[in-house]
Write a structure and sequence with these properties.
Layout lengths: L1 E5 L4 H17 L4 E7 L4 H7 L4 E4 L15 H19 L3 E4 L5 H10 L4 E5 L6 H6 L5 E4 L13 E3 L6 H4 L5 H7 L8 E5 L6 H8 L2 H6 L5 E5 L5 H4 L10 E4 L5 H7 L2 E4 L3 H9 L4 E3 L9 H11 L4 E2 L2 H15 L3 H11 L7 H13 L1
Parallel strand pairs: 1-2, 1-4, 2-3, 4-5, 5-6, 6-7, 8-9, 8-11, 9-10, 11-12, 12-13
C-alpha cells in the first residue's frame, strides 16, 4: 500500500499529517508513505526527523499583504504542478491525504487527475483556501467542527476531530514533573506563552513589554515563553528574558510538558493549538491572529468562549492587556477549572486513527 501525504508551511498542517502517518503505520505496518511539502519550509526538516521521506515543491502561498511579492506565483504554481506530476507518476499512490497548506494543492490536484482517491483533513471551523478548492474532488473530508456542510458536500464529511500528536494525546506528566523537565520551579504557578512554531509578534511584544509587571511578581509566577525561531534574535537578550522567573526559548521541543506545566496558557487560536490544549486539557487565553484567511482563528476561539471553555482577547488589545489578564485569572482557580473541564469536551480522541481507517479503506 502506497500513501501520499501532503500539507505544510506551519506546524498546524505538519503535525496532523505526522499523527495520521503514525496511525497508518500502526494499522498497516507495511504501508509505504511519502510526504510532499514546500521547499524551504519547516516540514522539510521536521518530517525526516520522524523517519519519513519527503519531496519538496517550489510552491509558495499567496501573500495578501504584498501583492508585488506574488509576481512569481503563476510560474511557481506551474512548476509545482509539473513537480507533483513527476512525484505522483513515480510513486503511484493508492490514496492521497491532504492536511491543508499550499503544497497540498498541486500534490492532490495531480493525484486526482491520476484517479487516486483523495482525503482532505480540515482543522478549522472555517476551511482553508486549498481545501475549499479541492472539496468537490475529494472522496472524503475529515473535519473537526460540526456544521461544516456549509462549506463542503455533506455526503463526504466525516466528523473525526483533529489529529493530536501521540506524545500530547497520551501525556502522563504531572505538572511538577513537567515543570522540572522545562527548567521551571516545580510548584510555582506557571504561565506558558506560545506563539506557534514560527512565533507571534503580538505575543512577544506583550511579554517583552511587561517587564515591570513581571518584576513585581517575580516570586509569585513563572513564565515559559516560546519566542519562535523567527523572533529569537530580537528577544533573546530582552530585559524580560533576563528575569529569573522567565524561561525564554526559541522553540519548545517537549510541548507535552509545556501544556502540562501550565496553570494558564496564552496562545494563538490555530486549530491544532486548540486541539492540543483541549487534549491536555489546559486553561487558556486565546489571541486570534488577524493575519489568517477569513479570520478563522477568531471563529475558532469564539466557539470556545460561547461554551465557557476559554477566554479571548483581540490582537490589538493583547500587547497591553494579555499579561495582566493572565495574572488576574491565575487567582481564579474555580474559573480555570471550569475552562479545563469545558475545553476537554472539544477533544475527540482517536481522530488520527479514524482518518487513517478512512484512507486505508479508500485505497483498497
Amino acid at each position: 500500500m502506497r500513501i501520499l501525504i501532503s500539507g505544510g508551511g506551519t506546524g498546524g498542517h505538519i503535525f496532523p499529517a505526522l499523527a495520521i502517518a503514525e496511525a497508518i503505520r500502526r494499522l498497516q505496518p507495511s504501508a509505504e508513505l511519502l510526504f510532499v511539502g514546500a521547499r524551504g519550509k519547516m516540514e522539510m526538516q521536521i518530517v525526516p526527523k520522524h523517519g519519513y521521506p519527503i519531496r519538496g515543491l517550489w510552491i509558495r502561498g499567496w501573500n495578501r499583504r504584498s501583492i508585488r511579492s506574488n509576481v512569481l506565483f503563476p510560474l511557481r504554481l506551474a512548476t509545482s504542478l509539473y513537480q507533483a506530476w513527476k512525484i505522483v507518476r513515480g510513486f503511484r499512490p493508492h490514496v492521497a491525504i491532504g492536511t491543508g497548506g499550499y503544497a497540498a494543492g498541486p500534490a492532490l490536484e495531480i493525484a486526482y487527475r491520476y484517479k487516486v482517491p483523495i482525503v482532505l483533513q480540515e482543522q478549522n471551523s472555517y476551511p482553508g483556501w486549498t481545501n475549499r478548492l479541492l472539496a468537490k474532488k475529494a472522496a472524503a473530508i475529515c473535519v473537526a467542527y460540526p456544521e461544516m456542510e456549509r462549506y463542503f458536500p455533506e455526503d463526504k464529511i466525516h466528523l473525526t476531530g483533529n489529529p493530536v500528536r501521540k506524545e500530547i494525546a497520551h501525556n502522563r506528566y504531572t505538572p511538577e514533573e513537567a515543570r522540572k523537565r522545562l527548567g521551571l520551579h516545580p510548584r510555582r504557578p506557571t504561565l506558558v506563552v506560545i506563539g506557534g512554531s514560527l512565533g507571534a509578534k503580538t505575543l512577544n511584544e506583550a511579554v517583552a513589554g511587561s517587564y515591570e509587571l513581571l518584576k513585581r511578581h517575580v516570586d509569585d509566577v513563572q513564565i515559559l515563553w516560546q519566542v519562535g525561531k523567527g523572533y529569537w534574535e530580537a528577544y533573546k537578550d530582552s530585559d524580560v528574558a533576563t528575569l529569573p522567573s522567565v524561561v525564554a526559548v526559541p522553540f519548545v521541543d517537549d510541548m507535552a510538558a509545556a501544556y502540562r506545566a501550565a496553570s494558564i496558557i496564552i496562545s494563538r487560536a490555530g486549530a491544532i493549538a486548540i486541539s492540543e490544549i483541549a487534549a491536555t486539557p489546559s486553561a487558556a487565553i486565546f489571541v486570534p491572529s488577524p493575519n489568517v484567511a477569513e479570520n478563522h482563528q477568531y471563529k475558532n476561539a469564539e466557539a470556545l468562549v460561547r461554551h465557557d471553555a476559554a477566554a479571548m482577547i483581540d490582537d490589538q488589545s493583547a500587547v497591553k492587556n494579555a499579561l495582566p489578564m493572565a495574572l488576574q485569572y491565575l487567582r481564579c482557580e474555580d474559573l480555570l477549572a471550569t475552562w479545563r473541564k469545558n475545553i476537554a469536551k472539544f477533544y475527540r480522541p482517536n481522530a488520527a486513527q479514524r482518518i487513517a481507517e478512512i484512507a486505508i479503506l479508500l485505497s483498497q
